[in-house]
Design a protein that fits this description.
about 325 residues; alpha+beta; Gyrase A, domain 2; Elongation Factor Tu (Ef-tu), domain 3; 2 domains; seven-stranded antiparallel beta sheet; 9 helices; about 30% strand; globular
Length: about 325
């Protein structure tokens, strides 16, 4: 939506940790429609699509036959099908992959990113900053809840402390701009890195081109984020994912750390034991952002045993140690 892109480019672009609104152009949208859309997605994704309706969204993932994730989604149902929200840079590859399995099914898979203006809201001021008529119609009242009207879809995502987190998808530029201006009267206008920082602190992983096919979903804690059903039927990678759940001993998990560095690591960067001079398989950076106080917050997947030893660093910054930070949810003992 070019009008929306032109408008957001005129807005401030800063990093904030609290009470902000940000453009979400970097989130891509995949539209799956057709009479067999539910059955198709049920056979491809990790979660139980039958649990989704027009007022409830869910997290899910798409994997190879070897159980390695190609993408992570937030999925919601609309009148004519489903919208899958994911990393925009993966949309084309994910659509091509999904279309390989459409075959003769009555299903259409398309890129819907250009049809919606989208922005995110991260705040603890909702009750006091907007009239109740506005909040009741446009702000879902619980995590995973969805509200829809003819031109706006709003989702509440995982909360982070006292901050509630929302995603808005708007078919109308004028309505998107009107909502943006109402929110920005009370909230800071931030860049999308602020939202990535919010996801990082919330322990919510993303897949980027650099990390495609690197992780089984349990390694990224998707099983702790209700991103998988172990009771549904087959889907790509299901055998490996189920075996790890029922029979295996998980050796890697997603962790949160802070780093004192001005050079923010990138997804896919190697994590290693202190003193290592080459990659030793200890772990991989999932995402990292430096906050408004100059502290780098980093999600990484690593061997559980090595994390407990507290001696991990970045391979390309060997003097920078990963200082463990608490996730907002508990890891299994």
């Amino acid at each position: 939506m070019k009008d929306w892109q032109d408008f957001t480019q005129t807005q401030p672009n800063a990093i904030f940790s609290h009470n902000f609104i940000a453009d979400a152009e970097q989130l891509g949208l995949i539209l799956v429609t057709g009479d067999e859309a539910q059955k198709f997605l049920q056979n491809q994704l990790s979660n139980d699509i039958s649990h989704i309706d027009k007022i409830k969204s869910q997290v899910s993932s798409y994997s190879t036959a070897k159980g390695r994730m190609l993408g992570i989604f937030r999925i919601m149902q609309i009148d004519n099908g489903y919208i899958l929200i994911t990393t925009k840079s993966l949309v084309v590859d994910l659509i091509n992959r999904l279309q390989m399995y459409v075959l003769s099914s009555q299903v259409s898979v398309a890129d819907a990113s250009g049809h919606f203006a989208r922005f995110v809201v991260h705040t603890d001021l909702i009750d006091s900053s907007l009239p109740s008529s506005f909040t009741n119609k446009l702000l879902p009242d619980a995590p995973n809840a969805v509200l829809q009207n003819d031109s706006v879809i709003s989702l509440q995502l995982n909360q982070l402390g006292d901050q509630r987190r929302y995603l808005f998808l708007c078919l109308s530029f004028d309505e998107a701009k009107s909502l943006w201006l109402q929110f920005s009267e009370k909230l800071n206008i931030a860049n999308f890195e602020s939202w990535r920082l919010s996801d990082i602190k919330a322990g919510i992983p993303s897949i980027y081109p650099q990390t495609v096919e690197q992780f089984v979903l349990q390694m990224s804690n998707l099983d702790l984020l209700d991103g998988v059903s172990f009771k549904k039927g087959c889907y790509p990678g299901q055998e490996i994912i189920a075996r790890m759940h029922y029979l295996g001993k998980l050796k890697r998990r997603l962790f949160l750390a802070t780093l004192e560095t001005k050079q923010c690591p990138s997804p896919g960067d190697e994590v290693c034991m202190s003193g290592a001079t080459s990659a030793d398989g200890s772990g991989v950076v999932v995402d990292a952002i430096i906050d408004d106080n100059g502290i780098c917050h980093c999600l990484f997947i690593a061997q559980i045993k090595k994390v407990s030893e507290q001696s991990l660093c970045l391979l390309n910054q060997p003097t920078i140690n990963l200082k463990s930070a608490d996730l907002p949810y508990s890891l299994p003992a």
